[in-house]
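Protein Entry — a single chain follows
Next Lines — sequence and tokenised fold
***
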Amino acid sequence: MGLNGDKPFDIQVNELEKYIKIDHFNGSEVTSRYKLMELFWPLELCANGVELIDSLCLDDPDSRDDITLDYAKSVDAVLYLMKSQDTGSGKDLNTIKLLQSLGYESLFFIITYYDHIKESALMGEQSEEDFQKIIFKTLSPLTELDNSQGIKFVDSRTALLGRIN
């Protein structure tokens, strides 16, 4: 749906570039007159009416916070992603408080770029265990879920190796 109230329409995946340009690698802004894009793909997880919504990050360069927060009011679960290098920043904690004010008490926290923590530990800096203790201490009070359910550490290198194996 367009920002100007245009009616929804279907396009083929190979035509996406005609409608939206996203070039984060060169530091340019997202250029699109659309506020919502729905992509449909057959996925077993979604067979029973489950919908996955990947929202824009808050503080997005195109200032689409309102769209993300509007979606947050109607979802059943929130997976909140944070980079391992700055997990629990003031911005994150303020956003988590906002989500809690919308009624979300069972937040899932996904800590990304965990390979950086592993590399740091190998170089004799902070151990993985110490890092995880800090994360659990910071985030555990912010969700009703226990650490094993509510806080996950992920990285692309481990995922790639898992896929290869």
Summary: Residues 90-101 form the longest helix (12 residues). The longest strand covers residues 79-83. The mean pLDDT is 78.
